[in-house]
Amino acid sequence: MKTIVYTLFTLLTISLISCKKQTKGLALNNTPHKIKHWSYQGETAPKHWAEIEANTECDGLHQSPINIIHTHTDSVKNRSDLKIHYSPSTYIEKVNNNGHSIQFDFEIGDSIFYKNDIYYLKQIHFHEPSEHKINGIIYPIEIHLVHINKHGEISVLGILGEEGNESQLFEFLESFLPLKNGDTKYIHKKIDLSSLFQHSKDYYTYNGSLTTPPCTENVNWILFKKPIILSVEEILKLKNNMPVNNYRNEQALNDRTIRYHY
C-alpha cells in the first residue's frame, strides 16, 4: 500500500512540474508575455517611457530636449570654454539602423575640449523633425554628435538643419544608405566633419539628458544657434530610413539656466 501511495505521489509531482514548465513565460490568457520596448508612437511613445523602461531617468527634472527662448538666456561673451578638435583623418567605423535612428559610429580621433576635459566623438545620429526648438521654431532635422570622456560623462553637440542647397558631407554619409532596420554596414573610411561648424560659432549650453531611454541626466548640451543647410532630397533620404517623427516632446526647463555664448 505504501508503495502505491508513493508511486501516485511521485506521478502527481512530475505532472505539476511539467505543467509549470509549460506555462512558464505565458500570460493568464495563454499567450506569450511580451516586454514592451520604447518607440515614438502609441503605447510606447515618449510620454510612456518612464513607465515602460525600468531604471531610467525619463521622469527627471533636468530632461531634454527643451525650447530655447533666446531672450531668456544668460549671454556670455566668451566661446573659449569649447574647443573642437576635428580632423580629416578620423575614420567612420560603421553605420547602423537601430530602429530609432541612423547612427554612425567613429573610431578614436575627433574630440572636443569642454569644461577642462577631453570628450571623444563616439557616434552621430539624426532626428526628424528637430527635438530642440529655438524661439519655438522646429527645424526639419537635428544632428546629435555624442562625445564621452574617460569617466563616462557625456557631452552632446546639437546641430539644427534647414532645407536649401546640397551638402557634400551628407551626400557622402548617405552613400551608405538605404539601410534596413537592424542592419549594419562596416565602413572604415575617412571623413572630415569640420564643415559642420563653419556655419556658426555661437551656441547655447545647458545641463540636460539623453533624449532617448535611459534619459540619463547630467549631460552637457551644446546647441549651435545657426542651422546648417542641406537639400530637401538629403533630408528625405534620411527620413525614409528612420521611424516617422523620431523626436521626443519638449521637456520643462524647471530651475535650469541656459547660456548663450557669442
UniProtKB/TrEMBL annotation:
Name of the top EC class for this enzyme: lyase
Catalytic activity: hydrogencarbonate + H(+) = CO2 + H2O
Residue ranges of domain Alpha-carbonic anhydrase in the record: 36-262
Domain of life where this protein originates: Bacteria
EC number(s) given by UniProt: 4.2.1.1
GO molecular function per UniProt: carbonate dehydratase activity; zinc ion binding
Keywords: Lyase, Metal-binding, Zinc
Pfam families, per database record: Carb_anhydrase
Signal sequence interval, chain numbering: none
Cofactors named for this entry: Zn(2+)
InterPro entries: Alpha_CA_prokaryot-like, CA_dom, CA_dom_sf, Carbonic_anhydrase_a-class, Carbonic_anhydrase_a-class_CS
This protein's record includes keyword Magnesium: no
CDD domains xref list: alpha_CA_prokaryotic_like
Task performed by this protein: Reversible hydration of carbon dioxide.
Family: Belongs to the alpha-carbonic anhydrase family.
Protein name stated in the entry: Carbonic anhydrase
